[in-house]
Design a protein that fits this description.
By secondary structure, chain A is an alpha/beta fold. Chain A is built from 17 helices and 16 strands. In chain A, the strands form 4 sheets. In chain A, strands 6-7-8-3-9-10 form a 6-stranded mixed sheet, sandwiched between helices. The two termini of chain A are 35 Å apart. Chain B has one domain: MetI-like fold (Orthogonal Bundle), CATH 1.10.3720. In chain B, 83% of the residues lie in helices and 0% in strands. The chains are: A alpha/beta, B mainly alpha. The interface between A and B is medium-sized, with 30 and 25 residues.
């Protein structure tokens, strides 16, 4: 656990970068420090590993004042990853990853094993990459090595300063997803700096929004979106906060069971009769207990054709873990407008429709509308 | 003249070898001193908040280069004799060449260390490297090839200047040149000059190879791409 207690930082030129900031980052929590540039978020993060000294206040890591520890011991116990990565070009990938183990004087074989393990963890084939040099890697791969390096000696705490900042949006999204999966496994206590509200919402368990050196709001992402504390937060979150809220929900949270599923061997005219009776426009065609084949429209069903021949195969599908914002854009791509949700085995588990999304949006809109009244008290 | 020089070469290979070795010895001693001093000074002035000192040091080293070698020998003779040290021969020449060699080495060390990507230094520091470890494990490995380029410049330049050292009795390949001028023996001048040039060319090639060898593999790959 990291505790900041009335922390202040005034630089020698008189700039007050951080003012009387108190916050706690819990064990295993992914805490995002968010704010516009110059708000003090990076300064705050760098004070935790003493890259920047405190002017006032106190920072404790697991109850111990960081100024009671040896500076370099403290830093070796805290993973550190930065936007510009700063890989050492004269060292190979494994030597880079094993920087802290090397500083801690682990035996060479153990350093090498650890590097292999971490390459595996960040999704890079150890045999291919372990002896390469940073200059032989793409930007995304370098960023992965940066992440692997900050996990070098398995520190309980990670400090990350826009670690996915300098790469293209597609690779960034991929790295974010992968890092969330890694974090679910390793459960580190993380202070993660970003100025990107979308990244913050996607990654953070809690978001600390800062302005001019002060902590404005410190809450979980959905609270930040639905109940912004003041005008600044509202502006920062943006006018599309409701849409942003979609990425906090996953398909499995709101999907509904299919209104009607039919099996390939069923008689088309019986199905047609049932759909007409229940006024169902689309049925979902499956075979072998849930393997999804496509959409069946009531109008297309004919006696002379098998159901399989009349079905429209799905162009896009989602998984239970697809965030709703992605699901929504997939629905626009889908000819049907609905999205079939399949689990890993390709089995049909539910369906998303515009109606469902509209209901979800409606709820968060009404939540958001309640808040300003509360604020005026 | 060329025929005479060739005959001299065939008749007195022992003398030429002796002058060449003397010359080499002076160069090696002076440049070892220059590289040790230059790198230490370069590291010192590249430290945080020493920009002013760095400017001054590099300025004085540049001025040093403009002092004619004969004048420098003269000045050093005066200083050395007042310290009761040998004021002619090997010592003043080595000191002068060390001083001349300092500038390229200091300048390259300073620039190379200054140009190490700050992100690397921050990453190193953030992971718990001590300042000395940042210097030895990050800055210097990246700076060595640039320092070697400075040394290469210093060596090639000093091979020429060392020839003048014969004037104050340091021996070396300047000896046949001065003797040739004094006694009007063009063959001696040609022999001396040719060997000084050869030495410079060969040293340049060797130092180039050394520069390549000291460039870390990961950095070499980047240069290619």
């Amino acid at each position: 656990m990291i505790r900041l207690d009335h922390v202040g930082k005034t630089f020698s030129d008189g700039t007050e970068a951080v003012k009387d900031l108190s916050m706690e980052i819990n064990e295993g929590e992914f805490c995002v420090l968010l704010g516009p540039s110059g708000c003090g978020k990076t300064t705050t993060m760098k004070m935790i590993n003493r890259l920047i000294s405190l002017t006032s206040g106190k920072i404790c890591v697991d109850g111990v004042d960081i100024y009671n520890l040896d500076q370099n011991e403290l830093r070796m116990g805290i993973g550190y990853a930065i936007q510009n990565i700063g890989l050492f070009p004269h060292l190979t990938v494994w030597q880079n990853i094993a920087t802290v183990p090397m500083l801690k004087k682990w035996p060479k074989t153990k350093q090498h094993e650890r590097a292999e393990e971490l390459l595996e963890l960040v999704g890079m084939e150890p045999d291919t990459f372990i002896d390469r040099y940073p200059s032989e890697l793409s930007g995304g791969q370098q960023q992965r090595i940066g992440v692997a390096r900050c996990l070098g000696a398995d520190p309980p705490i990670l400090l990350m300063d826009e670690p996915f900042g300098a790469i293209d949006p597609i690779t960034r999204a991929k790295l974010q997803d992968e890092f969330l999966k890694i974090q679910a496994k390793i459960k580190k206590t993380i202070a993660f700096v970003t100025h990107d509200i979308n990244e913050a919402i996607k990654m953070g368990d809690r978001i600390a929004l800062m302005r001019a050196g002060e902590l404005v709001q410190f809450s979980d992402p959905s609270t930040l979106l639905s109940s912004p504390k003041d005008e600044f937060v509202r502006d920062f979150v943006g006018a599309d906060s409701v849409l942003k809220g979609l990425r906090l929900l996953r398909a499995k949270d709101v999907m509904q069971p299919p209104p009607l599923t039919v099996e390939v061997h069923e008689n088309p005219m019986l199905v047609k009769a049932r759909m007409e009776k229940d006024r169902i426009g689309w049925a979902m065609l499956t075979e072998d207990e849930g393997h999804f084949l496509g959409w069946v429209s009531c109008d297309d069903l004919q006696e002379s054709k098998s159901i399989r021949d009349t079905a429209t195969p799905p162009t896009v599908t989602g998984t239970p873990d697809t965030p709703l914002n992605e699901a929504l854009s997939k629905m626009f791509d889908s000819a049907i407008g609905n999205l079939a949700i399949l689990d890993n085995g390709e089995r049909l588990v539910g369906v998303l429709s515009f109606e469902i999304i509209r209901d979800v949006l409606g709820q968060s809109v009404s939540e958001a509308k309640v808040e300003p009244c509360g604020e005026e008290q | 003249m060329w025929g005479q020089a060739w005959r001299y070469l065939l008749n007195h290979p022992d003398k030429i070898l002796q002058w060449t070795l003397q010359h080499l010895y002076i160069i090696i001693v002076a440049n070892v001193c220059a590289v040790v001093l230059g790198v230490l000074i370069g590291i010192y002035i590249s430290g945080k908040g020493r920009e002013r000192i760095a400017e001054t040091v590099i300025y004085f080293a540049s001025i040093m280069m403009t002092v004619p070698s004969l004048a420098l020998y003269g000045i050093l003779m005066g200083i050395l004799s007042s310290l009761a040290l040998p004021s002619i021969g090997f010592l003043p020449v080595v000191i002068a060449l060390t001083l001349y060699g300092l500038l390229p080495i200091i300048r390259n060390t300073y620039t190379a260390i200054r140009e190490v990507d700050p992100a690397m230094i921050e990453a190193g520091r953030g992971m718990g490297m001590r300042e000395l470890q940042i210097l030895t494990k990050v800055k210097l490995p990246l700076a060595v090839p640039v320092i070697m380029a400075g040394l290469r410049q210093a060596v090639v330049m000093n091979i020429g200047i060392a020839a003048i050292g014969a004037y104050i009795g340091a021996g070396g390949l300047g000896q046949p040149i001065f003797r040739g001028i004094a006694n009007w023996r063009p063959d001696l001048i040609v022999v001396g000059a040719t060997f000084v040039s050869l030495l410079a060319i060969i040293s340049d090639l060797l130092m180039g190879g050394l520069e390549w060898l000291t460039t870390p593999k990961g950095v070499r790959i980047r240069r290619k791409s």
